[in-house]
Design goal:
This protein is an all-alpha fold. Helix content is 75%, strand content 0%. Helix 3 packs antiparallel against helix 4.
């Protein structure tokens, strides 16, 4: 299979193949280490020819079928370079350690950035859920506070009624005690007056029985 004159950039190839750009870049590095290289421009950006897209599609299919990444990379690199396939091959020397190291570092940094972005997005989502829950709890707390205040008002009203009832009872007892005291005093005064009247009448009877002196 020959490459045509309209290669695709990494981003375009990733969009066409429905593969994350960072994964596509990592697969290219592994393919290059196993002898298959995707052509690059002068600035180092990869240009994906139709055969390159075919290789990536087949790799993606194998991964979806459960194949391990490294063995699948080796098999495809061998198939499309020097391995006994009838398909015309594309061969390349392994990249220099310096270039590979820099590219791997770039891939790792991109993966870290992607993971950080995903983590921040997840954290933002959790914070939003927490804020929503907090707002819901605030509403419930406000409702409970209103109910509590109403209950306390009812309790205070009942306490006032009880206090009024006790005050009425105290007033009744005080009034009754005063009335009983007055009644006892009247009874004692009456007894005293009756006793005095009887004593006076007794002396009068004695004087009547004594004969007058002549």
């Amino acid at each position: 299979m020959e490459r045509n004159s309209s290669p695709k950039s990494l981003e375009d190839a990733a969009n066409e193949l429905l593969v994350p750009a960072v994964s596509l870049q990592r697969w290219c590095v592994l393919l290059e280490w196993n002898g298959y290289a995707v052509a690059k421009r002068a600035d180092g950006a990869r240009q994906f020819a139709p055969q390159d897209l075919t290789v990536i599609k087949e790799l993606k299919q194998r991964l979806m079928q459960g194949h391990m990444l490294v063995p699948a990379i080796k098999e495809l690199a061998e198939k499309y370079t020097n391995g006994g396939s009838t398909t015309p091959s594309v061969s390349a020397a392994p990249p220099s350690p310096t270039v590979a190291r820099e590219e791997i570092i770039d891939i790792v940094n991109q993966q870290i950035e992607t993971q950080m972005h995903q983590y921040m997005k997840k954290t933002d989502n959790q914070l939003y859920q927490l804020q929503t829950l907090t707002n819901h709890l605030d509403v419930e707390f406000t409702v409970l506070k209103v109910k509590h205040n109403k209950m306390m008002e009812k309790l205070r009203a009942q306490e006032e009624k009880v206090d009024d009832a006790f005050a009425s009872i105290d007033e009744y007892i005080r009034t009754r005690d005063e009335e009983v005291t007055v009644l006892i005093r009247e009874m004692l005064e009456t007894k005293r007056m009756v006793a005095a009247a009887k004593e006076k009448k007794w002396w009068k009877m004695i004087w009547k029985l004594i004969p007058p002196l002549t």
